[in-house]
Fold these 3 entries.
Entry 1:
Amino acid sequence: MSAATEALARPTLSGEMAHEHYSRLLEGMARAVAAKGYADTTIADIVREAGVSRRTFYEHFTTKAECLVSLYEAASKLALRAVAEAFDSAQPWHQQVERAMTAYLDYLAQDPVLLRTLFVEILGLGMPGLAARRRVNGEIASFIQAAINNTTSGDAQGPAAHLTSEMAMTVVGGVNELVLQAIEQDRVGDLRQLVSPATRLVRAVAAESLR
């Protein structure tokens, strides 16, 4: 099991969400889907991996789909944390983009099976999955917008880039499509190759904002 899967839930949960059984259930779901895929995963698989009872599962989740959504949100928060740690607002924004893209894609590549589940299977949940995806993409877009808008231009005679919320969401959607394409083409092990096109996309969108 990868470090990414083992880290799920504990670093991102606080207060009520830090409840031990809740964390163990998310980790159990991660292990189960990594071993069998979401479609073949049962609640029995989840509770066995988590080391808790079926009753405990239903104290936290109504369905396995709800558990998957929670896992998706926890994993996405870890990915966003990796991006946040790569940013340094004291440095020019264009120097930070490549570092942030590298951190994001490196995090995603740590667990290819879980990555496929979180990027592909979440879409099969219908509206709940789409709503979760929209929430997560919104959080990432808001971070990118704030991070780039709060960094310097690196040029005393030129303005810093300024992204609107729509532009930031365009960036998130574009990068996610690159990742989905890599998954479909079985190139998850080569996500580092997406750093260059993803970086160019962010820079192009930001440059357009200055016109």
Entry 2:
Amino acid sequence: MATDLERYILDHISAEDPVLAELDRQTHLRVIQPRMLSGHLQGRMLEMFTAMLRPKYVLELGTFTGYSAIAMARGLERSDAVLHTVEVNDELQDFAAKYIVKAGLRDRIVQHIGPALEVVPGLGLVFDLVFIDADKREYPAYYRMLMDGGLVHPGSVILADNVLWSGKVAEGEAARNDRQTQGVLAFNRMVRDDPRVEKVIVPLRDGLTVIRVK
């Protein structure tokens, strides 16, 4: 249930894309863990980041039902820009594809199914913008893949979702004894201590880290 402040915010930003509004509803009706969906506020943020950065190659780790992929693709301004999105759960592929087509973005979004650590290095691309929103246990490995594998360049921006992990990152050891929380904590330390990047955590929803490669 949205708070009064959250409703106020949503009433004072650009209206939600009708296709995304339908996708949000259907995700809540038909998919397990619908809270994983980015939603209106974050979707608009992702679209604006994409429009400002004007990337040619965008990578998303964790398609889920396609909300964030569609939002970012809406912000692609270059005629040659493409977004590659990777999802390990093949049962979600057709669901996401339906809305990608409905949004008129089939030529802008390329879906990949499989483990990101296996799929992404084989794409042979260097990315201008990356959005990480997949298995939290793998966040450190995703970061190493991008930074050490030559998949980003100076000026690339990496966005990482859920970096506050419902506040568990600031709680005691009892709250940290699960692999998801451990993955987020390790990722946050890794980014903090990496001199190759500039970084800031934005307390949007469950925390969004904005990382710029120097």
Entry 3:
Amino acid sequence: MNRQSETVTNRAATLFLLGDSISLQYSPYLRKMLGGKYRLVQKENPDEAMRNLDNPTGGNGGDSRMVLDYLLQREAAGVMNEDALILNCGLHDIKRKSDTRNLQVSPVDYESNLKQILALIARCNIPFLWIRTTPVEDERHNRLSSEFHRYNQDVEIYNGIADRLMLEAGVPILDLNGFTRSLGDGVYCDHVHYTEAARAQQAAYIAGFLASYMK
């Protein structure tokens, strides 16, 4: 965090959070918990994304291909200048069409996309944190979602890929997956999203991590 400590003196550090609908739902709580010390910013048009959380539009970062494309656009525009980037993708990558069971993004492509994201962020010299993809309850998800299915086995595989790459690159990892599992039963409000109480707890976990990291 040398760059952050050198540049952030008398202003709030800017933290750019880019993730899926899970992050859109806990971010209002996180923003309040960070207070005036840190300024949390996100991808444009979060309200558009909230109209259909399963369809990644607007502020929803979507799968790893979408995240990579978005970051490449920001790099080309010369606006990758935040004090830190907080990133997650994976939940949309593991979508399987109900009829074909084909993954939206294969493990090989997921790894390739993450490697390109890591290279881009290194070029931009921005401190970077990775958030592990939250768990899926197979029976609940696939009973309530007819268009596509998800399986927690895929969550674990894709988290494993990301874990390895982030550890190799020296990127701090926030284990939101493990934390969310520790909350126990009754945390889902639909097939994969969380109750207001669970969102607040997820935000508190991330805020606590950031308080230590940003020091």
